[in-house]
Amino acid sequence: MKSTGLDVANGHPIVKMMQPDDSDNEAYFFNSEISPASGDYGSATRDFPCIARYSGSTAPAVGEEWGPKSGQWELDTAEMGFIIVAAGTVPDADNKGLVLVVNKGSASSCDFIRFRITESDFRNKVAVGAVLSRPCECVTVLDEKDGHVNLIDKAGCFLVEADDQLKGRQGFAKYLQETESSGSIGSLNLPLAGSASLVPEDCNLEIVSLCCPACP
Question: What is the three-class DSSP state of 103?
Answer without folding.
Answer: strand
